[in-house]
Design brief:
- The protein is built from 15 helices and four strands.
- It has about 425 residues and is mainly alpha-helical.
- The chain has one domain (about 1-310, about 375-410).
- The strands form two sheets. It has a two-stranded antiparallel sheet. Strands 3-4 form a two-stranded antiparallel ribbon.
- A hairpin with a 5-residue loop joins β3 and β4 (about 355).
- α5 (about 105-120) runs parallel beside α15 (about 380-410).
- The longest helix is centred in the middle third of the chain and has 37 residues, at about 125-160.
- It is globular and about 70 Å long.
């Protein structure tokens, strides 16, 4: 019976990692595949390697937290570990049915906390610290990207923005019989640099995903030392399952993300990835299980909101608040702008992404851009964002409640 439960636990752990690999690969390397900087095969290979590296380094602290710091390790049994893994797998299934990527980290913590409350052993100070970071990290992601969107993004877009290439940026050549990656003939230096950058940042995103998510697949098994002491087997199973998902179901995710990138300019995608991956890597190094998807979404929202606020200066906003609606227009607000702002206004490229007319072109000052040209919805969909955030709140809450009820009725913990 024990051997059968262990087989079931390993199967569910692989299933969880497999689904994580399928969704995370698109998030990490979607921009690179969409810009023809890298093929799907190499995206999967890099995802596998860097996710494993993330799990082996920063991910160890997250495994320790989920495998013995939230609830004492002695409370985990093989049966309880399998149940917690099943909750995580169920959350992935529900998220796929709704078309929304669930936060596996939050769901896993919720299931573990439910068992802790039922057994009376939940370490509230640890749980409080985790939840505090769950609130703080998305807020930080939002405001960092909002500041970038309002003050720096337009200038960055004019200097570094590159449209998605219609052909491959790199190609394989043989030099003295040795296969090498070379810049394609029709690729400009600007495109080549951007191609390298988007791949490097994708690797960083993959590392962050591994640091955060390997624990979701194997922490319950690590808590009972089901495969022996140490981290090696657990990280290999979690990282290997993520790699399996990257080479299989992630191909469809890469198609979806790569084709939909026209709604989010390549530069904006890179900013979102750097900010969200940096936050999650920092939290993982400190043993905090957190959601990469939540931070990435709030980064997108912040960047779009920051761009939309460029129509009004702080002074104009204050005057409008004091004098009432219409004050900004009456005092020469953005509705009345002519001249340079009209001449240099941004245009819509494929998919509605906002970009400046030409690299190096001057950027209209804040308060001199037209409101009808800078809608926040150009960089994010408010309705979809609300649905996604709502489900991210609901799924870990349901996981914790269901876990509590199940472990209260069936005290299969230690």
């Amino acid at each position: 019976m024990v051997e059968l439960l262990l087989v079931v636990g390993l199967a569910v752990a692989v299933f969880v990692g497999f689904n994580i690999g399928g969704s995370s690969t698109g998030v990490a390397f979607g921009p690179a595949v969409g810009s023809n900087s890298i093929s799907k095969f190499w995206a999967a290979a890099l995802m596998s390697g860097f996710a494993l590296l993330g799990g082996w380094t920063a991910g160890r602290e997250v495994i320790k937290t989920m495998g013995g710091r939230i609830v004492p390790a002695y409370k985990f049994t093989l049966a309880a570990s399998v149940v917690i893994l099943l909750f995580i797998g169920l959350a992935l299934l529900i998220s796929n049915l709704f078309g929304v990527p669930a936060s596996t980290s939050m769901t896993a913590v919720g299931a573990t906390a439910g068992m802790g409350v039922a057994s009376g052993t939940l370490r509230w100070e640890v749980m409080g610290g985790i939840v505090s970071w769950w609130i703080l990290a998305p807020v930080m992601a939002f405001w960092v990207c909002a500041v970038i969107g309002r003050y720096f993004y337009p200038a960055l877009a004019t200097r570094f923005g590159v449209d998605t290439s219609t052909g491959s940026i790199f190609e394989r050549r043989r030099v003295a019989g040795i296969p090498l990656v070379w810049v394609a003939e029709d690729t400009s230096r600007r495109e080549a640099i951007s191609g390298v950058l988007v791949v490097v940042i994708g690797c960083y995103m993959a590392y962050s995903a591994g640091a955060s998510n390997v624990a979701n697949a194997v922490a319950p098994l690590y808590s009972i030392q089901a495969l022996g002491e140490g981290f090696a087997f657990y990280v290999l199973i979690g990282g290997g399952a993520i790699g399996l998902g990257a080479f299989t179901i992630a191909r469809r995710t890469l198609d979806t993300v790569g084709n939909d990138l026209t709604d989010l300019p390549l530069l904006a995608a890179l900013i979102v990835e750097v900010v969200s991956a940096s936050l999650i890597t920092f939290l993982s190094l400190n043993g905090i299980p957190a959601s990469l998807a939540v931070s990435a979404t709030m980064s997108i929202v912040g960047l779009g909101w920051g761009r939309a606020t460029r129509t009004t200066t702080i002074t104009q906003a204050a005057e409008q608040a004091v004098k009432g609606d219409g004050a900004a227009q009456a005092d020469g607000g953005p509705e009345r702008v002519t001249g340079p702002a009209q001449k240099n206004k941004p245009k819509k490229t494929v998919g509605g992404a906002l970009q400046a007319d030409k690299p190096g072109e001057s950027v209209a000052p804040i308060g001199e851009e037209k409101p009808d040209e800078l809608a926040a919805s150009d960089l994010f969909d408010p309705g979809t964002t609300g649905r996604v955030i709502g489900l991210w709140i609901v799924t870990p809450s349901l996981s914790a409640a269901a876990s509590y009820l199940l472990f209260s009725v069936f005290p299969i913990y230690g």
